[in-house]
Amino acid sequence: MSMILSASVIRVRDGLPLSASTDYEQSTGMQECRKYFKMLSRKLAQLPDRCTLKTGHYNINFISSLGVSYMMLCTENYPNVLAFSFLDELQKEFITTYNMMKTNTAVRPYCFIEFDNFIQRTKQRYNNPRSLSTKINLSDMQMEIKLRPPYQIPMCELGSANGVTSAFSADCKGAGKISSAHQRLEPATLSGIVAFILSLLCGALNLIRGFHAIESLLQSDGEDLNYIIAFFLGTAACLYQALDCQAHLIHHPEQTTVVGRTA
Hints:
Blueprint (H helix, E strand, L loop, with lengths): L3 E8 L5 E4 L7 H14 L8 E6 L2 E8 L2 E8 L4 H18 L2 H6 L10 H11 L11 H10 L3 E2 L7 E2 L2 E2 L3 H7 L14 H29 L6 H26 L13
Parallel strand pairs: 3-6
Antiparallel strand pairs: 1-2, 1-5, 3-4, 4-5, 7-8
Helix pairs in contact: 2-4, 2-5, 7-8
């Protein structure tokens, strides 16, 4: 059976619950969803203003406006258009009933608990299609959702809280990795090729001069050992520069963009 199970009104900046409906179901799935509610409450400021989180047999939907978020829990088969129409009604009534000054200065949880009466009445109406009197407005909401669909929150964005870790975290981490098989190499530039060749030639020249210096030293022509060391250090420096050029020529991949969340 598709239905709305509970709803909450939460302040965006700090996740303070302002009002909430009373739900009596104590199933394991509902307990998990309450934890997801708390985790989402702490991240509202970082999320778009219309979102959906799928949690197995249940969906959590919410909209945010003027620093307040309206969140609801429903069964997975509850129609999206009805869910967001329900939230839109909560938003309009709350804005009409309470001014922003009161919501911004609230310091204790559930200080607008009397709003629960409206939540319960609206929830009952949306759970009973025969008495639902908002069908005439659903076409507007349907068009709005089609043009601007809710952001689907991946489980990994929630992280972990109260010892609950998302089973999808590993998948989400893996999605962010860039496979080296898809990297493509840039064509070598002329200046890079010239720099590579010149570095090799300088290295070879220093190496030859170093061997000549060793021969002179062995023949006791008074060649200073410091000159020999200098030639070999020059050779090492040139070879290092050549290898650096080679690395830029061969292993410089095109930048790959990982598609992430867009608001």
